[in-house]
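Design a sequence for this backbone.
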């Protein structure tokens, strides 16, 4: 979910969930309640360079991913 293209995330979600993306953040919500299921924050300039944070509000955990570009 963190690095997938937006349309791939939309296609993978069940019918009762939706994803919205804007300025360095993705939010996945439960459509029936509007509650956040998960949020993903990532660097705006280059998602492959820096820290991304996936926070799952439903199951109460947070994952920090540190990425760096390698090679050309």
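Sequence:
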């Amino acid at each position: 979910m963190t690095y997938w293209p937006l349309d791939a995330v939309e296609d993978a979600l069940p019918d009762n969930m939706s994803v919205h993306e804007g300025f360095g953040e993705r939010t996945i919500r439960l459509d029936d309640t509007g509650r956040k299921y998960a949020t993903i924050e990532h660097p705006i300039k280059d998602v492959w360079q820096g820290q991304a944070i996936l926070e799952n509000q439903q199951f109460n955990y947070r994952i920090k991913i540190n990425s760096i570009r390698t090679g050309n």
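Residues 6-67 form one domain.
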